[in-house]
Amino acid sequence: MKGKGSRDLSRLSRRRGARYMEAATRAPADDRPPIMDTPIRELHPSPFQPAARPSPEAVAQVRAGMKEAGSLEALLDASGAQHLNRLSPEARELAALARDIQANGVDTPLEARRVGDRLELLSGHRRWTMTALAGLSVVPVADLGEIPDEEAASIVFRRNRLRADLTPWQEARALLHLREQQEARGNSTSVRALARMAGYSHGKAGGLLQIGDAFLPLLSQVGAGHPSQGEAMLAKVGYRVLQKLARLDPPVARVAEARRAAGVKEGAADETARSRGKQSSPARPPAARLVQSRKGGVRVEVARDPDQLEPWEAKEVLDLLAPLLKTLRTRARKQTD
User: Fold this and answer.
1) pLDDT at residue 6, as a whole number
2) For residue 108, with 0-12 CB atoms within 10 Å meaning exposed, 13-18 middle and 19 or more buried, which class applies?
3) If you average pLDDT over each of 118-127, 175-184, 247-256, 314-323, which comes out highest?
4) Per-residue pLDDT tens for 140-174?
5) Do 33 and 142 touch, CB atoms closer than 8 A?
6) Cα 213-214-218 angle, rounded to 5 deg
7) Continuous segment of H or E residues that includes residue 73
8) Separation CA 213–CA 27 (nearest Å)
């Protein structure tokens, strides 16, 4: 028995497959990319694919749910409802996709380019990952041949934009990832260049980059010590609100308003504890924070001596510094070139 989500995905994948094959049929014979049944172990993810598409946490949830229910089919049957309901929305969607692939195969070919003797995906990262969970070992792949990095990055980004569930925050994160990749390769990272590659207007690309730069260093604070929770909270907020919040200073105000926009009721837990006559524990302060100066600079404030930090605090500091270190390494590399 397949659920409604699985049936919808099945119809959707067949429609997309039909459109792909129709377009391929209209193209001149010499221009059609060869489509091959390819072992999934011979495929490699694109370096331009955002790390959270699909998120490792959601994939792990599907794998754990399958183990608890006994099988993928059982997870999506009525008998597996208790296990399915514990999954995140993304994990439930991935489980339905895996079940559809298990029942119908992969209708729409994945796209890949040649990098030396490797096949590197340009589209279909979710289908590739779920094919393995579905117990299949081969997928259809359209081999687009050798494609320059800049064109490959553009294809990957545009394919991700086609997903209906892509949130403004995820778009901002993906555009930041594209900018990092272009910086690492010494290519232009101007707003105009990124907008052209991603298929955005100049204004939209600038707005997304502003959102990403404003919140990426603050994910741990937004998520109360957990960057992944910060990502999930920001994914609930619309583009216009994020754009407005990105301009707020100081950063602590930006964090507070972002949490409020995501539906977090500060103090709700304290009120519940008081109503039960219990002492509530104070909110855990962040291990570090970024402080922006009026002149545009930034400094990092660590709560205490690094030698005295707990492991989770050290990880929080590293998560906060990661984007800054990437930028500094890129700038240093340009100086030595």
Assistant:
1) 38
2) buried
3) 118-127
4) 999 999 998 888 888 888 887 777 667 899 889 88
5) yes
6) 105
7) helix 72-76
8) 41
Phi and psi (nearest 5°) for 319?
A: -60, -35
| Nearest-angstrom CA–CA distance, 315 and 319 | 6
Distances (CA, A) of 27 to 19, 22, 58: 12, 9, 38
| CA–CA gap between residue 128 and residue 137 (Å, rounded) | 10
Average pLDDT value for residue range 198-211: 92
Closest CA to 13 of 94, 107, 98: 107
Report pTM: 0.59
Instruction: Kindly report the backbone phi and psi dihedral angles of residue 186, in degrees, each rounded to the nearest multiple of 5, phi listed first.
Output: 75, 20
Q: Tell me which amino acid residue 169 is.
A: W
Residue whose tokens read 């100081």: 250
Q: Are 230 and 264 in contact (CB under 8 A)?
A: no
For residues 313 and 287, the answer to whether their CB atoms sit within 8 Å is yes
CA atoms within 13 A on the CB side of 167: 18
Query: Residue 201 corresponds to which tokens in the numbers above?
Result: 């207007």
Q: What is the mean pLDDT of residues 266-273?
A: 46
Positive or negative: CA dihedral 163, 169, 174, 179: positive
